[in-house]
Specification:
The protein has three domains: 30-143 and 211-448, Amino acid/polyamine transporter I, CATH 1.20.1740; 154-206, no CATH class; 468-509, no CATH class. Helix 6 runs antiparallel to helix 7 (106-141) and helix 6 runs parallel beside helix 20 (427-445). The protein starts with a helix and ends with a helix. The protein has helices at 2-7, 14-24, 34-45, 48-61, 65-89, 96-103, 106-141, 154-169, 175-180, 185-196, 209-224, 226-252, 267-272, 275-279, 284-289, 298-327, 338-342, 354-385, 404-420, 427-445, 464-482, 484-488, 500-508; strands at residues 199-200, 203-204. It is mainly α and 509 residues long. The relative contact order is 0.19. It is built from 23 helices and two strands.
Length: 509
């Protein structure tokens, strides 16, 4: 019994991981440089947040939403340092799974492995669905009508049909009155999709076809090879950053400083309401570390690539947030496409830029999906090597030098659910998974043996024995003073999942 229990926490020694690196790395192509890794990080982090969810975050936080990006970047900065040290010492594809296996044991590694699989799968599905929304909106902007029943999930259309029928029968409404009400635009679009959908055997054919198509296309690119993926990623990142910079430079001329007052209309609580949507993007750092066996010099380049991509992304997000909240009141930014809104007739009236912004959003979502699709198969591959998944998951394509079975399975796992699922609220779940991975990686650094090779990256040493408890005590006192109601309701079941990472941090500290 004792041996069985101890086996749950057995660790994979660092010398075995280094031996595996020397052996297994031969199966994958080493193509990635520092620039490629930095581009992959930017590709993953700058996505829907800067084109879409930043509007909702600005609505709740006002101009003070910039602090959200600053706080998040600082928090993730510490995590990146830990990832960087692991990457320099354990340059293998398993990312947080492998790091946990080496420091905290097999049980936690198994848990974080499946946590990452869920995190990547749900995140990829959400990104694919978001891409579909942007793509169909882009087509409609040019007068091309995509069938609504082939651009949404079955459940949304079914619920909309039921709700409209209820409004017509019990609410005394008419289709004309609902169509004229802007609050019901989305509802009517879903209702029309239900009514216009063809049926086979009484079953209506409603699915999100663009989400399926883009997932299969990206999966095919990832399968063909890391060299082709990096070329595509680098090109798309240049386009994406160019569009974001253009938006910032144009928007500056329409900024009205009075819109920045009040700066924090809803206080700190309003700022934190957008944290899940922002934090979701930082899974990109984990994705970079999964490419360790495809780096030319992983011990040197992985830490540099991770650290280089960190400051670029929040700086661009902060500038975009300042421009948005400066061009119009934060109260007007609770829209799906805030950049299109501020450059539309309501504010700047620059219709020619709408197509450029739409292209930027599509490119941004495509690169996010690409990096996520690169990450998940390599975690499966690492788990297959260690025997926690069947050996077929570790199979490498002899022609393309990529994890063949895992890549194909990832494409299927993401593509099929994206056809039928509505995942507008799964960002919170993915953010929780990201936080859990970050907590374990940061904890794992404490269990690494002392660094002897000075050429490898190492987290700057700070004795947190007294500092961490002091910080926790200070935060607890300030929280009780300025947010007493929140502290008293901390253990209320509603929204409790958002507090799990905070509890985990306290326990680890």
């Amino acid at each position: 019994m004792g041996e069985a229990f101890s086996s749950l926490f057995r660790k994979k020694p660092l010398h075995l991981l280094e031996r595996d690196d020397a052996h297994n790395g031969e199966g994958l192509k080493r193509e990635l440089s520092v620039i490629d890794l930095t581009a992959l990080g930017i590709a993953a982090i700058i996505g829907a947040g800067i084109f879409s969810t930043i509007g909702n975050a600005s609505f709740y936080g006002g101009p003070a939403v910039v602090f959200l990006f600053i706080f998040t970047a600082i928090a993730c900065g510490f995590c990146v340092l830990c990832y960087a040290e692991f990457a320099s010492r354990i340059p293998q594809a398993g990312s947080a799974y492998t790091y946990t296996y080496a420091t905290l044991g097999e049980l936690l590694a198994w848990i974080i492995g499946w946590n990452l699989i869920m995190e990547y799968a749900i995140g990829n599905i959400a990104v694919a669905i978001s891409w579909s929304d942007y793509f169909t909106g882009f087509l409609s902007g040019y007068g091309i009508t995509w069938p609504s029943y082939l651009g949404m999930d079955y459940l949304t259309a079914s619920r909309a049909a039921s709700k409209v029928q209820d409004l017509l029968t019990t609410g005394g409404a008419t289709l004309a009155s609902l169509a004229a009400n802007s609050e019901y635009n989305s509802l009517m679009n879903s209702y029309n999709a239900w009514m216009s959908a063809p049926s086979i055997g009484g079953l209506r054919i409603i699915c999100d076809l663009p989400a399926l198509i883009i997932t299969f296309l990206v999966t095919a690119l990832v399968y063909i090879g890391i060299k082709e993926s990096k070329r595509f990623s680098n090109t798309m990142v240049l386009i994406k950053i160019g569009i974001v910079i253009m938006v910032i430079l144009l928007g500056v001329f329409y900024v009205q400083p009075e819109n920045w007052s009040p700066f924090a209309p809803n206080g700190l609580n309003g700022v934190w309401k957008g944290v899940s949507g922002v934090f979701f993007a930082y899974i990109g750092f984990d994705s970079i570390s999964t490419t360790a066996e495809e780096c030319k010099n992983p011990r040197r380049d992985l830490p540099r690539g991770m650290i280089a991509s960190l400051p670029i992304c929040p700086v661009l997000s902060i500038l975009v947030a300042l421009v948005l909240t400066g061009m119009t009141s934060y109260k007007n930014l609770q829209v799906g496409d805030p950049l299109l809104y501020v450059f539309g007739p309501e504010v700047a009236n620059l219709p020619w830029i709408a197509g450029i912004i739409a292209v930027g959003a599509i490119v941004a979502m495509t690169t996010v999906l690409l990096v996520f699709q690169i990450g998940q198969p390599r975690i499966w591959m690492a788990m297959g090597r260690d025997g926690l998944l069947p050996p077929i998951f570790a199979k490498i394509s002899p022609r393309f030098k990529t994890p063949s079975f895992s890549t194909v399975l990832t494409g299927i796992v993401v593509a099929v659910p994206s056809l039928f699922m509505n995942l507008t609220e799964v960002t919170d779940l993915t953010s929780i998974g990201t936080l859990f991975a970050f907590v374990l990686v940061c904890a794992g650094v404490l269990f690494l043996p002392p660094q002897k090779d000075k050429s490898k990256f190492s987290v700057p040493y700070i004795n947190g024995k007294y500092l961490v408890p002091l910080i926790l005590l200070t935060v607890a006192i300030l929280s009780f003073i300025y947010n007493r109601e929140g502290v008293e309701n901390f253990f209320v079941l509603e929204g409790f999942s958002h507090k799990i990472p905070y509890l985990a941090f306290n326990l680890l500290a």
